[in-house]
Amino acid sequence: MSRPVIKVLLADDHAIVLEGLRALLESEPDIDVVGATTDGTEVARLVEHHKPDVIVLDLQLAGIKGTQVIAALRARPAPPKVLVLTAYNDGDSIRSALDAGADGLALKTESPQQTLTAIRQVQAGQLVFPQAARRWIEGRGAGAPGDLTPREREVWALVAAGLSNPQIAERLGLSDNTVKFHVQHLFSKLGVKNRTEAALKFAHGR
Fold it and tell me: Residues 95, 100, 102, 108: what is their CA dihedral angle, to the nearest 10 degrees?
């Protein structure tokens, strides 16, 4: 059974990177590159015209910062998923991507296959981060709200590290439904609406 085709828009300030990404993605039967630009100010127009499922976006763009582009997209009804593809895995880059509302972050230094996997995972609704970024996020857990149970703290750390409910269930030896229950209560206690907001709150250490 074939996968649904994912419409992807590319935005990077280096034309050679765009060419390489386009060549990589167009070799995949389930990915359709609908547009590409080096100019951040063009992204909104291209989104309106092509209605992509996923935008692969560098934080450094001509005309406007990538984080500003993400924030503007988040204000749209039914915004596309955003995967930040960057050369930087420092805490500031991770935090700025989360602050802006990115659905995931991948590194340009990773293998092409990992980039393809990240696009598919973001489209599937998973919060995606490379291992280096996950280690940084996991190290930011101090200062969690005092009314969280030890299990909820464990679940929060794993949600922030990008694991899905089934992955958390496997890691903690729980059923999927039990994890779903913990996640729902966690979101309620933290006052967040989704996994991205939970990860952002975790990254900020509160």
Answer: -60
